[in-house]
Amino acid sequence: MEDERFERSRSLLGEDAFASIASLRVAVFGVGGVGGWCAEALVRTGVRNLVLVDDDVVAASNINRQRQANPSTIGRKKVEVLREMLLEIVPDADISAIPERYTPESAARFDAVIDGSDFVIDAIDSVDCKAHLIQRCVAGVERSAARNPQLFSSMGAALRMDPTKVRVSPFSKIAGDGLARALRNRFRESGIPVPNHLCVHSEEPPQKTATGTRGSLMPVTCAFGMTLAYLVASRAGSVFMPQSSLVSSQVNSRSSSTGTTSAAQSSAPLS
Q1: What is the rounded CA–CA span in Å between residue 253 and residue 150?
Q2: What is the count of structural domains for the chain?
Q3: Do the beta carbons of residue 256 and residue 197 sit within 8 Å?
Q4: What is the pLDDT of residue 237?
Q5: Does 265 reside within a domain?
Q6: What is the mean pLDDT of the chain?
Q7: Which of 73, 98, 78, 94 is CA-nearest to residue 37?
Q8: How confident is residue 72, by pLDDT bands cut at 50, 70 and 90?
Q9: What is the 3-state secondary structure (H, E, C) of the chain?
Q10: What is the per-residue pLDDT across 223-243, written as a single tens digit (0 to 9) for each?
Q11: Contact call for residues 21 and 66 (beta carbons, < 8 A)
Q12: What's the pLDDT score for residue 60?
């Protein structure tokens, strides 16, 4: 059964790369329109140890784009629903659901999760919380851990319609993204260098909605999540291909491990 379930992944990646991916510990912060799809892609690719962090509940307005949203799950915690779904796919996976919000005030409660992870996925949609998590993972905040996990962040997927415009770039090189701009402004105001870890973003200019409210589509939020999962699998399996059309020409194989940030105090749309 084990060999049959992951035969296609193992065939494409190779035995060594697949074994490396299977041994990973990955934490996903934010399991909405981006993080939920990323989590599923990770598990289906072969990641066996996953931590899901989000305090939100499923709402009817999530059904158009979020993995765990359907009429029967409305009102339930997103992480708990997603954990159940992922265990239906791979019953013997080790998946933890933490129905809490990562904030500057609650950050210490997540020390063990972050320090025990090889990769952290930042799919948070609040600038203050997002900036603090970036600082915690990338900037080397004082703590007992001997190393930092590798961090990949999602920028704004809302107000975009074209999944073919999704790209990967160092944070400092992203243009036309309101969330990235808000974060960079906060970092500079704090006098701290802008980080350079890899982020998923869209080259498509944000669209205006007919009602003036925020809009999101599954093809784009899902593409963001799948690209984040690709970054984890490719780095862990040593099959990263910088010539991919997804990846900005400024990216090199070490750009995800440098940079620093600071906390901010605002919010902006992610998905």
Answers
A1: 12
A2: 1
A3: yes
A4: 74
A5: no
A6: 86
A7: 78
A8: very high
A9: CHHHHCHHHHHHHCHHHHHHHHCCEEEEECCCCCHHHHHHHHHHHCCCEEEEECCCECCHHHCCCCCCCCHHHCCCEHHHHHHHHHHHHCCCCEEEEECCCCCCCCHHHHHHHHHCCCEEEECCCCHHHHHHHHHHHHCCCCCCCCCCCEEEEECCCCCCCCHHHEEEEEHHHCCCCHHHHHHHHHHHHCCCCCCCCEEEEECCCCCCCCCCCCCCCHHHHHHHHHHHHHHHHHHHCCCCCCCCCCECCCCCCCHHHCCCCCCCCCCCCCC
A10: 999 999 999 999 887 765 544
A11: no
A12: 97
pLDDT in tens, 137-156: 986 544 545 567 999 999 99
Considering only the C-alpha atoms of the chain, give the largest distance between any 2 of them, rounded to a whole number of Å: 54
Does residue 271 belong to any structural domain of this protein?
no
Q: Is residue 205 part of a domain?
A: yes
Q: What per-residue confidence (pLDDT) applies to 236?
A: 85
Decide if pLDDT at 70 tops 60: yes
CATH of the domain at 47: 3.40.50.720
* 128 in Cβ contact with 265 (< 8 Å): yes
73-106: pLDDT as tens digits: 999 999 999 999 999 999 999 999 999 999 999 9
For 69, the domain range is 2-257
| Mean pLDDT along residues 9-22 | 92
The amino acid sitting at 140 is G
Residue type, 227: T
In a domain, 262, yes or no: no
